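Sorry to interrupt, but I need a hand with the structure work. Could you add the entry underneath, on a fresh line?
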Amino acid sequence: MKVGDAMLVRLALIYLALCLVGCNSGSAKTHDSSSAFQGSYPIHVVCTTGMVADLVRNIGGQHVRITQLMKAGVDPHLYKASPGDISSLNEADLICYSGQHLEGKMADLLHQLSHTRRSVAVTDGVDKEQLLKNDDGIVDPHLWFDVSIWQQAAHRVLDELCDYDPSHAAEYKKAASVYDAELQKLHQYAREQLATIDSTRRVLVTAHDAFHYFGRAYQLEVKSIQGISTESEASVKQVNDLVAFMVDRKIKAVFVESSVSEKNIKALVEGCASRGHKVDIGGELYSDAPGKDGTPDATYVGMVKHNVDTIVQALK
């Protein structure tokens, strides 16, 4: 396909998306935050990421039907809604997304839809004192890597479901209590397992800056090539600086991410090799998306446990 033809196709898709929003929002009710659910069950909840979908699934149970927009291996920082996604969002009873600019390219769309569809950013319930920011003052959106913080996001989902569907509040609270206990157990597992790594080896090197909450919660030094978003390309200086750090500290392993290109990590390995320092790829971590459906890593608990076990095996 020629460049000009590709551009025409892209413009056509954008036009179709705008038409869908316009048509659907024209017939939709203006969102009333005080109104309870009055439709037929299950409640149709559209979630952006797998981590958010897992929260809603565990707490909502049989009373919710989930449409998840971003699948395994998808980078939410770069994700652009398709016309089909927009149609699903417009048909939703409730929209749940992560927030804190994780879904960067969908921010305007989510804001627009909040006027006609009940919407909630699950990280809105997190204690602001626990939020990490980069040098530009931008909040790091990867809150789920501190399990104790993600428990607060679960409480936000619980509050939203109880408010929207009070007739099943008791069931939501019971499910949330069970899930909260599971998350507490996961948090303790991560702390105990990662504590077995010798202090001189407790350095986690990844492609992009997704693991600072993880590092703070579980006492690891975290280094990465790109920032908290994958939108910007890594510079040669960033790669060279990290190579120098790894050679100086004699770092033996780096990690690739399931939703991020491996090219920068391979550049690190090659850069270290050129300076006589051998570095292995310690394994693949789940950063911005869980594993594939049907695998243990498809759940939030599964993805975190996979990461912990992979890091321990590589660094210990």
Summary: Residues 235 and 315 are 27 Å apart (CA to CA). The chain has a mean pLDDT of 87. Residues 3-187 form a domain with the Rossmann fold fold (CATH 3.40.50.1980). The beta strands are 43-47, 64-68, 94-97, 118-121, 203-208, 221-226, 253-257, 280-285.
